[in-house]
Amino acid sequence: MYHRSLRSFLPDKEKQRPASSALHFLWNLLLVSSRLVALALFASALPCFIFAHFLCSWALLLLAAWRSQTDFMDGPGGERLYRGAVALVWYFDWFNVAEGRTRRRALLYHGYALADVAALCGLWCWTLSAGPPGFPPRWVVAVAVVAVYVVGLLLKMVYYKWFHPNVARDELRGVADETDFHARPEADGEAARVRFHAVPEAVSLRSDADVMDRGGPSAAAAPDATRYNKRMRKLAENFYS
């Protein structure tokens, strides 16, 4: 659903193949599942250290999110909360939160994540090495978890090489979202109806101060006060450009 919401901003979204969405889902599934299994194995062997691992990883990822200089929320307090949430998401998977080329940032993140998955699985094997052998052998399980992450990375490279549309931010179209729209009632003797209005790219959100300056609260119901979901568009800009 997140991927298709981003696709709604593409000018040629009807030309996108279903294989693109399937591949996008598959590599995310492999990366997240490998990460979760590695964390579960580590927690089963060293449950007291999983919280320390989370806090240290989250602090490191929060620093990376802070250095990305995100500009997503309207105020500084909301931006700090957003960066903390980004670090929490990055603990499990990567998504782009800043403008510009992201290859270097993605390589750094996935290098860190792959090393962390390998370390977690290695510590799990080492901690339980004194116990009775299991089936399949523990080292086979650890190698399989790391291999799943590597396969997910390879599928991600295939997606970005042949399926990912690269468009400039000016080429993205504006779309009205059902959570952020202007309702226009029609006084035709029947019950008022609500219409959703898409807006061009140049139209931006108006602040409450602008509305008050143009005539008070009644101006908020003006027919031309159309809005679109600017945060979803921001995510689309970061993902496609």
From TrEMBL:
The keyword Secreted does not apply. It holds the Pfam family XK-related. GO terms for biological process: apoptotic process involved in development; engulfment of apoptotic cell; phosphatidylserine exposure on apoptotic cell surface. Keywords: Cell membrane, Membrane, Transmembrane, Transmembrane helix. GO terms for cellular component: plasma membrane. It is a multi-pass membrane protein. This is XK-related protein.
